[in-house]
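Narrative of accomplishments. A recurring question from our advisory board has been how the design workflow behaves on a single, concrete structure rather than in aggregate. To address it, we present the structure tokens for one chain from the evaluation set, followed by the sequence designed for it. No filtering or post-editing was applied between the two.
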């Protein structure tokens, strides 16, 4: 995350100005997210950043951003949704979701399981959001923005004790729900 001095420079900037100012940080974030994706991902970090930016601007093109944190959170959420949409599209029947790629060794490839895991995680996260919105936001910032425990607590304006409680609740809830599904 850029330094605190750069934080002041982002206040009340437009989306395009935020993109220009935080472009390197967004590319780093996108590269980190794509590194966690299953092999065979064809979306490069630059394209993910640009697609996320377009989604943010389509939602509210005139919105002034209060801080770099707000813009990074919105960008990370857009990136998460893009990757989930791509995973769902790969799984969909229309795009051959019923067919499985077979490696030369005739073993099922790892990407199929990774796509199912991503979609299951997204569904569990959506249910958590309905149950406990703060815990869902906390999980999103940790997993999709890459914030540390301390950075997430600061972003959500939580005390250390509140952050610990929210993290434990959210993590336990997600693990329990994923275990039920498998």
């Amino acid at each position: 995350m850029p330094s605190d001095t750069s934080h002041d420079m982002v206040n009340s900037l437009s989306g395009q100005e935020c993109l220009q100012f935080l472009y390197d940080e967004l590319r780093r974030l996108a590269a980190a997210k794509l590194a966690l994706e299953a092999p065979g991902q064809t979306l490069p970090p630059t394209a993910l950043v640009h697609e996320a930016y377009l989604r943010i601007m389509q939602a509210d093109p005139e919105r002034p951003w209060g801080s770099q944190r707000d813009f990074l959170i919105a960008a990370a959420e857009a990136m998460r949704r893009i990757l989930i949409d791509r995973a769902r599209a790969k799984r969909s029947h229309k795009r051959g979701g019923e067919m499985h790629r077979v490696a030369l060794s005739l073993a099922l490839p790892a990407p199929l399981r990774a796509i199912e895991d991503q979609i299951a995680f997204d569904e569990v996260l959506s249910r958590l959001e309905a149950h406990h919105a703060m815990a869902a936001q906390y999980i999103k910032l940790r997993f999709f923005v890459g914030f540390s425990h301390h950075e997430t607590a600061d972003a959500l304006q939580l005390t250390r004790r509140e952050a610990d409680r929210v993290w434990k609740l959210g993590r336990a809830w997600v693990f329990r729900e994923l275990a039920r599904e498998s």
